[in-house]
Structures are given as structure tokens and as C-alpha cells.
Design brief:
Two copies of one chain form a homodimer. With 387 residues, chain A is α+β, with helices and mostly antiparallel strands. Chain A is built from eleven helices and 14 strands. In chain A, strands 3-9-8-7-6 form a five-stranded mixed β-sheet, sandwiched between helices. A five-stranded mixed β-sheet of chain A has the order 12-11-13-10-14. The first copy, chain A, is globular. Chains A and B meet through helix 8, helix 9 and helix 11 of A and helix 8, helix 9 and helix 11 of B. Chains A, B: Its main location: cytoplasm. Chains A, B: Catalyzes two activities which are involved in the cyclic version of arginine biosynthesis: the synthesis of N-acetylglutamate from glutamate and acetyl-CoA as the acetyl donor, and of ornithine by transacetylation between N(2)-acetylornithine and glutamate. Chains A, B: Its EC number is 2.3.1.35, 2.3.1.1.
């Protein structure tokens, strides 16, 4: 379902640059993707009350439906940094516009990392001074790598749509329960679509993918998903484009879930026979986010009762009747009829993908959400992140 | 505030029994507290949709305002166990009524432990057959110990009110975000109060204590807090009783928080200057429940930006203006003015109690909630609980 044999190279007309701006000790931490011709753009952002200046600025720039460049600073979110933080984000956008030769208003900026620390502007300025002569020859893999924080691997995906391609790069590991979007995911295509069509396609693709992902219930202040289309390959079939786009977003979502901080397994929860989509998603998220379900999945512990608990804690869903609910792990039914032998359940839970399927008996709606197990690795990573 | 020099012995007229009913390999796992005379009773229960037969039965019995005995089965929640589970809970209540010589309708039953496994009724029956001759001479500490599952220590508290005493026993470590109540807490007093007064006092005491506690956002299917008053010591001043009762509940709440699964620290979050109490509590719970805040507290990592993130994820609280919010750790202000030196913050975070104080600037309401850090110990305990 998520495979495509197309080579992982930028769509026609897109180029990229990565460099080391001193945000971390070593390795590239600044990346820029740019279209060599005008492009339509659409983007969705975090709804956090503490959205940072990068999100505020990008939201304003995306409004025109025209976007040509995306810059990412990794390791520092530039959030809760006051007026200085706003000025710094604006200065980075200005420098990128100069570097890439595009209007300032066509630049999107993403910042990801620790909250509440000022950007190291002196090393960033020195970097842009030196970058003026640098070639735009970075690959999608190099860009995805330069965007990483505690990610253990770069996330990229590619899909073909008729004569066009869609390429996506993403990052995100913790503080990861996207609300309107996920951490950072940039999708570029040489298909020709106008801004309204692009916006509609992006929103349709985001709900069942990035917005159905949760690693730890913590919503980032910096989430951004953007889609740029420069038309270099000409028009494509809209339905085919939508399918490819949603499929590519799902591919990236699964990569994000599998690389959740400390994760060793993908956890997929499907709720069906629900009153409406919102109820299905709410119950599914309760299960995928339950620390007790996540730790049981981590330990391949056949403690299925925790799934029932996680459904039950939605105390406002009073139309759910416990006697009409069913729960399955993969193809092993566990409730209401407990398996007499737990061995097949343990075997199933030892796999690197665990599927939980729930029917609520309150209607016909359905939702699937994605997450991961909770391991001691999550604690190790997060008990000592800034220091 | 939470100290009382009164000896930890039952109030006049209360007696208790503990024994081994085969629910776990060794150690007492059944406990009964009984009043030797009629007593008024009040109780609050979990609102989980999957509340077990113990809760259903107890809720019915509490309705009369008369309660004389409380039985607890530890290690098995008897939840999601179908009609057999209901019959088993009823049989235990019947046996306890016989054993304690009280009407069946005056018995409350609590069950705590794994969900979805049938009670081992043959060993439980054998236990009650043998118990008929056993003395009711268990101490509050012995009862609290017999109620434990993954608790590392028994939780007890005592307060004096004029001529009367209130004694409380509690258990609860994980699956712990009480909704209408906490895991299991039984409070008995020889003060004389009628059922309506008792009910009002209990509800007032529970909101700022047990209902302000969260270890892991997972709401149990079995939460129960009950208060029995047998009047043996005569009437007391109602205001003084309320103060002592709330104080005793807070004492038990702090014991529960400190003994959260894998916990090494108490985390206390106070939100003030909020629009209303509900907003204050919602924001405080977002912070106390954030895995990223909890892991930072565990590692004494001065990553205060995560508190700002946890406030910001309440995307419906649109009246919160980030520029009017303030955050302190103990007496160290961190937002909006970041401390230039993080050392005092680290020192503060290394203590075994970490206090976070937030002002929202949206009104004058306040709430305090209690929780704990998130450690690798939580993962160890929960990745391998049933097996």
C-alpha cells in the first residue's frame, strides 16, 4: 500500500540546501527547500495557544496561496522567546529569501527543538553569510536528516501521479499529538494545482494520517504540514493526486509512529460501529494514548483488560453499552469472550506491529489511529533532553 | 498540616479482619472492616463506562445511607467478567454479611487488580468457610496492606475531631486518574453524623483531594471512596469535622501520589488567576499529566518550556493570552523571564517534592492537583503485570 518504485529525487524544479548553523554541536541543522519557479502552497499548523513566531509568520505567509521556499531550524523551537524570538524568525526568513532569490512572503519557516531558549543568531548569521555561495544540491534524505532532533532516522516518501511526483520529508518523535497538523512535514510536487485545490487536498489527506497519530498526547507548539506545487510536470487527475497524497502522508505517519521516542513497535487502533467519526477517533485515541495499554504492548503482556479500561474512561460517551462492545487483538478476540489460551495473543503482541480492533455498537462510523509502545527509552530520552 | 498525633487505631466500634483468599500467591488479599453497631454511610464511585460488578453492587447498597461493612479483594478487579462476575461479587457480599453478622444491604465491596479474569471462587469459598472462627483484630495498617496491589507501602491516616476520630485506609498506584473518586479509600469515624451530612462532607472533601490526583490519566473501573460513621463517640462540630476529613483525604492523596507506580517524587501543580475552577483544574491536569513534564521532573531537567507546551495544548481555552501567563518552579520564576542561571532550578527540581505554579491572567479562580514523575520504573511495572 505505501510502496512506490519512483526514485527519491525532488520533483522537477525543486532544489534544496542543508548546512550547519551552530544550533547543535555538529551536523547540518538548517535546511531550505526551494522551487525555481512560482508555486502554489497550502499549509496547516498547530493550534497550540503557545504557537511560536515561526508558526505565526508562516501562517501569515501561507495565506496568499503562494509559497516557494521552506526553511527549517532544528534543535531550537524558538517558542516562548518573546519579541526577540519574533525578530529572529523574521530575520531568518529574510536571509532565506535572499539566499534562495524568492520574495520574503513566499517563505515558510519551521523551528523544532527545545522551547524557551533564544536562537544562536550570531552563528546563524555567519552561516547565512557563508551559504551565499553554496550550491542547492541536497537530496530529500539529506534535508530530512537535517530536520531531525531525537529522531533516530530520516523520514521520506515519494509517490508518482501520472507525469508528476510528490516527495515528502518529515520529522517528529516526541511532543507528538498533532492537532491541526504534525511536527514538521513538507510535501512538494511538480503537479499543477491551484492553491484552493491544493488546500482541499492537503486537508483531506491530513485528517486520517498526521492528525490520527499520537506518540505521547503532548501537542507541539511548532507543528506544520505544508504542500507546495510548482506545476513543472503539468496537470494531473485530481482523484489520483488525492489518493497518492493521502497514501504518502500515511507512509510518513507510520514512519513517525515507528520512530516515536523509545518506540519499538507500531500500535494501530481501529474503532468501528461508532456513533460518528468523532466518537470513533476519541475512543481510539484513548486506547492508543493509554500508558497502561502502551506499556502492555511494549512488554507483550496479554493484559487486554486495559483496553476495556481505556474505553470506559470516556465517561461522557454514555451511549456505549459494555455488553455490546467487542475487542480484538489482530485476529484474536479477547472481549467479551476471553481466549482460554493466552499464548496466541502473546505471540501476536510480540510482533513489531500490534493491531487492536474495537466495535462499539453505537452506529456505523469508523476511525483508525496510530501510535507506538511506551518503553524505558522514552524516559531516558526525555528525562535528560536539554542538559 | 497533615499531621495528627492520635494513635492509628480504629474509631470506637470498628473492627477489621484480613486473610489470604488465594487471589495472590501469598499474603493477605481479603480484608473486611465492620462496625459493631449500625452506621451511616456515603460513597462516591468511578464513572467508568466499564464499572465492575463490585461498583454496581456497592452503588446500590450505598443508596440507603446505611453501611456497616466494607470488603476488599486485592489482585483481581472482577471487571469485564460477565454474568459470572456479577454472581461472584454478590456471593462475596453474602459471605461477608454472614461473617460480620450484618445485613447484606449494608456491605460495600471493592475489587482491585487485573481486569477480565474470573475470581478464584473455590479458594475464596474455602477461605470464608475457615474465616468463620477468625477474630476481627486486624489493625488499619494490616487492612491497608491487604488492599495493596503494586503499591509499595500501605496508606493510612488518622485525625481527631473533638471526642471522635477519623481513620482512613487507601490503595492505588497506577490506572490512577480518579474521576468521581480514587482507587479504594475507606474512611471510618465514630463521630455521629446522619447520612445526608456524611454525603455532603465526603463530596466536599473528595474534590480537592482524590479528584485532584492523577498518576497516569488512566481512570480505573473500580474507584471507590466510602465514609462510614457509627456515632459511638457522639456528635462533633460539623465545620471541624469537615476540616479534619478534607485534611485526612489530602494526606492519603499525597501518599497515593508519592507511591504512584515508579514514582520518585511528588509533583504539585497550582494554577491561579484562572477564569473558573474548571479551567484552573483542566490546565493544572494538562501539566501534571504531560509525559514530557513528568520525565523532565524525573530527571531534574530544567526544561521548563514543556510546561508552556502543556498549557498551550488546551486549544479550546482561547481566552489564555501567552503574554499574560507566568510560570514558577517553587520560588524560581521561569516564564516570561527565563532565569539567566539554571542552577537554582536544577537544585529545586532535585528535591523529592516539585511545585509548579502558574498564573493564567484570565480571572481569579484556582486549583491544585497532585501527581508524580514518570520513571523507567513505571514501564517495568506495567510492561509485565499479568504474567
Amino acid at each position: 500500500m505505501t510502496h512506490d518504485d519512483a526514485p527519491l529525487i525532488w520533483p522537477t524544479g525543486f532544489h534544496a540546501y542543508t548546512g550547519h548553523g551552530g544550533l547543535r554541536e555538529s551536523g547540518d541543522d538548517i535546511s531550505v527547500i526551494v522551487s525555481d519557479r512560482p508555486a502554489s502552497g497550502a499549509a496547516v499548523f498547530t493550534r497550540s495557544l503557545f504557537a511560536g513566531p515561526a508558526v505565526v509568520l508562516s501562517r501569515a505567509n501561507a495565506r496568499s496561496g503562494q509559497l516557494r521556499a521552506v526553511v527549517t531550524l532544528a534543535q531550537n523551537a524558538n517558542v516562548a522567546t518573546g519579541r526577540a524570538g519574533e525578530a529572529n524568525a523574521a530575520e531568518v526568513v529574510r536571509r532565506v529569501a535572499e539566499l534562495a532569490g524568492v520574495p520574503e512572503g513566499d517563505v515558510l519557516i519551521g523551528s523544532t527543538g527545545v522551547i524557551g531558549r533564544p536562537l544562536p543568531m550570531s552563528t546563524i548569521r555567519a552561516h547565512f553569510d557563508a551559504a551565499a555561495k553554496a550550491p542547492f544540491d541536497a537530496t530529500p534524505g539529506q534535508v530530512a536528516r537535517a530536520m531531525m532532533t531525537t529522531d533516530t532516522r530520516p523520514k521520506t516518501a515519494v509517490r508518482t501521479v501520472g507525469p508528476a511526483r510528490i516527495v515528502g520529508v518529515a520529522k517528529g518523535v516526541g511532543m507528538l499529538e498533532p492537532d491541526m497538523a504534525t511536527m514538521l512535514a513538507y510535501l512538494v510536487t511538480d503537479a499543477s494545482l491551484d492553491a484552493p485545490a491544493l488546500d482541499a487536498a492537503l486537508r483531506r489527506a491530513v485528517d486520517p494520517t498526521f492528525n490520527s497519530l499520537s506518540v505521547d498526547t503532548d501537542t507541539s507548539t511548532s507543528d506544520t504540514v505544508a504542500l507546495l506545487a510548482n506545476g513543472a510536470a503539468g496537470p494531473v487527475d485530481p482523484a489520483e493526486f488525492q489518493r497518492a497524497l493521502t497514501d504518502l502522508c500515511l507512509d510518513l505517519t507510520l514512519q513517525l509512529a515507528r520512530d516515536g521516542e523509545g518506540a519499538t513497535k507500531l500500535l494501530r487502533v481501529t474503532v468501528s460501529d461508532a456513533r460518528d467519526h468523532a466518537q470513533a477517533k476519541r475512543i481510539a485515541k484513548s486506547v492508543v494514548n493509554s500508558p497502561l495499554v502502551k506499556t502492555a504492548v511494549h512488554g507483550a503482556d496479554p493484559n487486554w483488560g486495559r483496553v476495556v479500561m481505556a474505553i470506559g474512561k470516556n465517561t461522557s460517551d454514555t451511549d456505549i453499552d459494555p455488553t455490546r462492545v467487542t475487542v480484538r487483538f489482530g485476529d484474536v478476540p479477547v472481549y467479551p469472550d476471553e481466549p482460554s489460551d493466552l499464548a496466541p495473543l502473546v505471540t501476536m503482541m510480540r510482533r513489531d506491529e500490534v493491531d487492536i480492533a474495537i466495535t462499539l455498537g453505537t452506529g456505523t462510523a469508523e476511525a483508525t489511529v496510530y501510535g507506538c509502545d511506551l518503553s524505558a527509552g522514552y524516559i531516558r530520552i526525555n528525562a535528560d533532553y536539554t542538559t
